[in-house]
Every structure is written in structure tokens, then in C-alpha cells.
Amino acid sequence: MYRNIVLVLFTAAALAQNYPSIHQLELEWHRENFAEPAYKLSSDPVLPLQLRTAAPSKKIFGYHPYWQGTSWLYYNYDLLTTIAYFSAEASGEGALNNLHGWPPADMINKAHENGVKVVLTVSLFSNDNLTTLLSNSDNRTRLINNLLEQVKNAGADGVNVDFELMPASQKTNMVTFISSLTKVFHDSLSGSEVTLAMPAVDWSAAWDYNQLAAVSDGLFIMGYDYHWKGSSTTGPVAPLSGGTYNITNTINDYLTITGSQAEKLILGNPYYGYEWPVNSSDAGTNVTGEGSAVLFNTAESRALSYGKRWHAESQTPWYYYTGRQGWYDDSTSLSLKYDFAIEKDLGGVGMWALGYDQGYTDLWEALKNKFGKSTSPSIPNEYSQVNWGSGLVVLDFSGSESADYYAVERRFLESDSVESLGIFTSRPIIMDNLNQDETYFLKIKSGNDQGESSFTELLGVVPSVSPAEVLIVNGFDRVSGTNNTFDFILQHGSAIQAAGYYFDSASNEAVISGRINLNDYKIVDWILGEEATATGSFSSQEQKLIEEYLIQGGNLIISGSEVGYDLDEKGSSDDLLFYANFLKAEYITDAAAGRQGTYSAQGVSGSFLDGVQLNFDDGSHGTYDVDWPDGIKPLGQAELILKYGGTDYDSNGGAGIAYRGWFGNSFREAALVYLAFGFESIYPVEVRNETMLKILDYLEGPTVSVTSEDPALPDRLSISNIYPNPSNNAVTIEFRIGNIDTEVSLKILDLLGREVFNRKISPGSKDNKVRWNGRFYNGEKASSGLYLAKLQQGARFQTKKFTLLK
């Protein structure tokens, strides 16, 4: 995600220079630097808008820029009424020249399932082109018809108009256009809505607030850009008060001019801020250079790290660190703006832009506290399951901050039966007394007195004394045009355990956010199923993480039928380089088999899959129809390991490749196995397990001799005793570390995973016991309960439980 966005304030001086808004500048930057999604058409009908049992007390209107990808999967739909997909670009002649991935069928289905409308934003940011469009009735009609066609075909709910740098000469024509647009949509699509993005200050006197409010369904007031990158002093992006120009004055102006059409006004709020270089830590100081934008998640992190300060005049937070000041809005300042919107009885609030708070839930909670007090919690996200040893498993996640409890449910491979494993009231969820060496497939949901969320995707873990060597990542998010049950870890996990390996698992969002580190695992199995351009097989963030993992010597399994189509056929230049350099593949064709009636593959003679004969699902064997598997060929030193049955390899390509060697500039050997169809679709189970065993054997590489002095594999790393156990005071922990020349740590953790004690054991140390006095770092006595002693070197560890009694 691009973080340094150029922002501009519509001041009188700026207007004379035709400075664009943040909407325009972000769109232009991403148009040049971001590979937009390209959707494969689906014949599946879009889910109609569903009735909702509980809705926010006001309209909550959020922009979803196309470059936010699949972040819509984790929006709190209970706290939204409309999502505006940004954007389709219009021309002066009324054409739509660039749809930027519209229609996002998966997002529309998800929103409709939750009773949330999706509208298409149409953008045009040019004084001259706006004159050409609005001054000509044929051009206006052409654009209206094009928009109606796009919205109807997508099964969506209306349009949002974002025209900026508006010429004053088109003030009346703009009203005419919006009036006609609204009438056509209302007549053609029952329940549709037409809204406009509006400036905070009408410097050019180009906007008829009153008439536009009257003929449309709502005005989204862009209540931001009061300070911008070129400001001479630091200051708030969205001041509620203070100075001449602020949100209070903006809203009062709109109410006055529209004759108090408050129900038509939506106060837009920024989910971003600005940083400037400075020579002083004083608020409002002169800047020493141009500023740069920071999204909320970055600004909040820096404010918490360097000290959050409060600017009473504007009622916004800011922060300072060496040579820079940052100003933004947080949950407190946004809550004050929400209070103001409620006081003025506005129609609602909104934000630019959804997803810019990734990793934080504070802004959702602020919305909930003001507008959604009767809503159930959101679905947990960034979900992972990790073995801690000694029968303990940790289920970690973000989101669902309003939940009072979390329910855990277990699934089984060979049946549809489920088992409840209990209700938990704290997070992360720590599962105790699980059977060692037994596979657990688990999903969770959150709840409160208003209801429950949906279940998460299914993940899995094997409780064991030793840490897991394999991480399974579920990156299959697509729901339209496929049969995604979100439980394909059943096939992957069971095959990995049958091969004699322990595994942890995570959603790809947990990997992106940094909750899970790929480098902690010897082997990563990345599930992509039929993930394609609609939701993106590998985002730029995921590509970077995978590149780093392989450069560090990791071993990677990738399986998915649309990876080549997405990255090569429809990808950007960066996607093409990633596909060639790190997946070691050449994309040949889409639907190399499947659609041709072939659902089989054979191991290539001389490869490690020599002799394997497998079938993959045509939709009748429990997963989904693999109807569009890619045809691929190996590049460089990679080798072909699978060919499709009954197809010509030269023209259609093969079904799988493998590579062992160096990636990038690294001199560490790594390995890759890439199947051009989902591994989970292989049947029968015996062949699926045999295939996974051979893949894992290949990734492990040839057996080598390792001496006890090898620091990467310490001999007898173990906790031999903890006494007294239970204890009402202190405990002594005895351990073995063997002969090592790298540092080992002995930590004590509570059951929330919080570290309460840490002793470093230096190379060459003869100590084999440590005493803990039963106190936290601040000297306070530890409370009664279960604790963990964790002995760790690198990714290897052992844990043992003990109990404190008071």
C-alpha cells in the first residue's frame, strides 16, 4: 500500500494553481504505480440486498478505493450503510475509460449479505473536461446511460459523483446533470441512491449546495485537507474548531445555504494525517520542507511510540519525533466530530478511506459507540493457530473488540460433525489440555448480547512438545465463481500430519500484518485454490514477504489454479518479475485442462513425482470444479514435475514445477514446489497424502550430517524440571541446553502470552537452573494461575506449565 500520498488544501491560493484533492492525487498515483484488479467474468447472479435486523442510527458512508484490494473482507458491516467503490473514470464525452476493477462481485455479495449498499463512484478531475461534459446534453446523457449500465450489470445500488476542480460556468449544468441522473436511477433501480462528493469550502462559487441537496440523495462533505503538504506551518488536517476555516464553520455554511437540509448531509472524515519536517517541537511551527501523508495505522503507531499530544484549539491529536511533526485524527477526535454530526442532526458520517486503519480497531469502536450500540461484533480477522508446546495452543486474532465472548468449534476431516470446545472470555484464546500429536481443526466466532458474528475460516494446529516445522497459510479468499468453503486446510493439514510433520496455520492477513512470521518455519504451504484477479493471488505485500522468506532459505509450497493468470496474464510489471524470479514459472495458457475435459495429471519421469497418477476435482469430489487450471512451464533451473493427462504440453503447458537453489542475490539454498491447481482438489486421499509426502521429502533436501556443535540444532534443548510445582512463592527451573555458541532465552509467560520474566543464557554458560521470585518486572507479586516457562533458541523452543498459588 502506498503510504506517502500527496495532499492539497483548496485554499484561495491553491485554487488559482488548480491543485487537486487527495481523491485525485491518490487515484493518479495508483493509476501509474498500482496494478488494478482485473475480474474474470462470472455467470453467477449477485446476491440481492438483504434486509438487516439492526442498522446504525445514522448513514455511514465509506469509500473503498480499488487499491485497497480485499480489505473489504474485514470491514464491520454492522457499522456501514453504503460502500462507494472508487472509481470509474469518466471522459468529457461521457465515456467510462477506466473502471479500475469494477464490478467487484465478491465485495458486492459480502456487502449485500449484510444489508449494506454498494455504489460506483464516477470521477472526473479536470476543469476543461467538466466543461465539455456538463455543457453538452448528449455527453451528459451518455454518461448517465453508461453509469446505469455498469450499476445494473453489477447488481449494485447506485452511484457517487466525484467531480472536482469544478468550473463556475457549469454551476447550473451540474444541477441539471444530477437531477437527470437521480431520476434515471430512481426510475430504473428501486432503492438506488445518488450522492456527491462536495468540497469543504466553495472557493470558486461553482456549487449550488441547495439545489444539489434537493435533487440528490446526499452530499458527502469532504471535511479534510485544511492543512496540506505545502502548508507553511504544521497543523490539523481536519480541525473541528479554531482558526477561520474548520469543520464547524463548513457544516454551518452547508446548513444555512441548503435551508437546513441536514438529513442530506454526510460529514466525511479523514483516516489519514500529515507529517512535516520541522526544527521545533512547538505546535503550529514553521515547516522546513514539504509534508507527506501517513495513513491512520502509521500515524497512530508513531503517536503511541513517540507520545501523543492534544491540540485543544482544533481538537485533534499530533505527535513529534526527531525533526518531524505529524497531525491526524484518532478515535477521540473523530468521536468529537461524530458528536457534532449528531448535535446538528446530520444524515450521517463517512470516511476517506476504508481500510486505512488496518491493524487497529479503535475507529470501528468509535463508530459503534456513537451509531451502532445495538450491533453484534464483527468477525475475528488476522487469525492464527500456533502450538506453544505442552498441550497448549494459542488462537490469536484481531477485530471483534465489542465481543463479550468467543466460541470455539472443532471440525473433523472425514465427517461433517462438529464439536464445541467451549466459550472463552479473554483473548488470545489459550486452549489447554489438548491431546498431543492429534490434529485440531478449529474456527471461532465472537458474540455479545446483541448477537454473534459469523465463524472465521477454518484453521488447524497439532499440539506437540516440539515446535511446528510447517506453516499453512490460507490465502484463498475468493467467493464468487467458485465453491470456497474456507475449510481446505482439512486436506492440507491431514496430509502434512500423515507425512509426519507438525504444523501451525494462519490466514494470509495474519502474515501480512506481521502477527505470524514466515521465517519461523522451515516449510510454508500457501493455499490459493481458485484465487484469481478478483481478489488477487499475491498482493505486493505478500510478494515481498515471500521473496524475503525464499532469500532467507525457506521452502515454499504454492498451489492454485489461477496464479499464473493473475500474475502473468493480468499482472503488473512487478507481478511478472515476481512470477518469473520467485515462482520460477512461465505462464502458457488459462484452462490448460478442466474445460478441455481433463482432470488428471501424471508425475514426470525422472522427477520426484515420477510414478504418481492423480486426479483433481471436477466439482463432484468434495471441493470445487478446477475448471481453469493454468498451464505452466519451468524457467531457468526449475524442473517440470507434473503434466496434465490428455493435453499437449508444448502448446498448453504443464501442471507443476519444482526448484532448488538460490533466490535473488542470496547464497542460501531454498526450494519451491508450485502446483498449477489446488492441492486440496487431489483425490483419492491416499494419492493426496502420497503427493504431499513426496513434496515434503523434496523440500527437506538430501539428508546431511549435523554435529552437536551446530548452533542451529542445539542438542537436548529441554526443561527438565520445575519445582516446587505448584508453588506459593518462587520456582526454580532446571534445563538442558547442550553445547551451544548462540544465545538461549528462558522466559516466563502468563496465559495471555505476556512476558513477565526473561533471562538470557549466554554462549558457553555452565548454568543449568534459574530461579524466579514470583514477581513481575515492576516488583508486584504475580497473581495466582497457570504460567509457562519457555526455553528458546531461534525458532526452536520447549515449554512447560507450572502453577502459582496464593
Radius of gyration: 29 Å
Percentage of residues assigned to helices: 10-25%
List low-confidence stretches: 1-18, 703-715
Shape: globular
Helix count from the secondary structure assignment: 18
- Hey, roughly how much beta strand do the residues contain? 25-35%
Question: Based on DSSP secondary structure assignment, what is the total number of beta strands?
Answer: 41
Q: Structural class of the helices, strands and pairings?
A: alpha/beta
Oligomer: single chain
The biggest beta sheet reads: 13 strands, mixed
Could you characterize the architecture of this molecule?
The chain is α/β, with parallel strands linked by helices and 806 residues long. The chain is built from 18 helices and 41 strands. The strands form 7 sheets. A 13-stranded mixed beta sheet has the order 19-16-15-24-23-25-26-33-32-31-28-29-34. Strands 1-2-4-5-6-7-8-14 form an 8-stranded parallel barrel, surrounded by 6 helices. Strands 10-9-13-12-11 form a 5-stranded antiparallel beta sheet. The chain is globular, with a radius of gyration of 29 Å. Residues 1-18 and 703-715 have low confidence and may be disordered.
What descriptors fit this protein?
single chain; about 800 residues; alpha/beta; eight-stranded parallel beta barrel; 18 helices
